[in-house]
Specification:
The protein is mostly helical. Helix content is 70%, strand content 0%. The longest helix is centred in the middle third of the chain and has 32 residues. The protein is rod-shaped.
Length: 73
């Protein structure tokens, strides 16, 4: 199911848009999708930076830590 989003543009911009035979709805949908992907990547990168900051300076050896965990359990 889809939703409708309406935008308001100045009259002169509307006139300029009308001069070109472009499917503006499709174009704007694609731009929104691209922007959302960019924002999601940025959010993930920020989260990774937070995790790195928490573990900075700690002695982390995943193979050793997993082996120790397995021995204990």
């Amino acid at each position: 199911m889809s939703e409708t989003i309406t935008i308001r543009v100045p009259k002169n911009l509307k006139g300029e848009i009308a001069k070109f035979d472009i499917n503006w709805s499709k174009y704007l949908r694609e731009m929104i999708i691209m922007k959302l992907k960019e924002l999601k990547r940025k959010r993930v990168a920020e989260h990774m930076d937070e995790i790195r900051a928490k573990t900075a300076g700690k002695d982390i050896n995943m193979a050793r830590d997993i082996s120790e965990w397995r021995r204990k359990h």
